[in-house]
Amino acid sequence: MEQTTVDAIRAHAESEYPKECCGLVVVARGRERYVPCRNAADTPEDHFVIPAEAFADAEDLGDVLAVVHSHPDTSSKPSQADRVACEASGLEWHIVAWPGGDIYSFAPSGYEAPLVGRRFSHGVLDCWTLVRDWYARERGVVLDDIERKDLWWNDGKSDLYRDNFAARGGVVVPDGEPLQVGDVILMEIRSRNGVPNHAAVFIGDGKILHHCYRQLSTRDVYGGYWAACTRMVLRYVPK
To answer: Which GO terms describe its biological process (predicted)?
Structure first.
């Protein structure tokens, strides 16, 4: 990056501190420039979200080269969520640590987060992401993503899993039918909407793979608390 771009990124990080800043590096009329964007994250767990309209406005200016955001009070080293999101964006990323101003740059390289031990980041590394990743890696099946805001299960109206499972090949498994590897177990865990808000994959030997809110993804024995929270079991049926 050009020094003027680096200076602009650091100035933006300083102005937004202690919040995360975010923006885009663009080439417009043969010149590189930094375009600061509004961080539209709903909660601290979202970290940063660049609004779709801001990205579109940047594309109107020129070619978008990179995504930028800051890491307040920590290093510029990318998190698992940063690496996953970078892969999805197809763009180079620059992370600036603030205070300090150190910048770490990286690009898509084929990174995949581990199925077990991944850190939670809603919409990037969460329970639905884990279900999708398991199906992609174990079955070669690509399940469509679901647009979702953090804490959607407390907004008084949303029922995302039950509203979307049929379109993604899920059929309800009758009560009492033995579980099969790959079955998706929907649970309700402290949902003010009273709807399923947590998904796990049955992986055999009485175990599930899942990723609870703000925790690491893990394997657990299915039963007890998890069985009590279960509201339905879905089975993927190819169309």
So the answer is: proteolysis
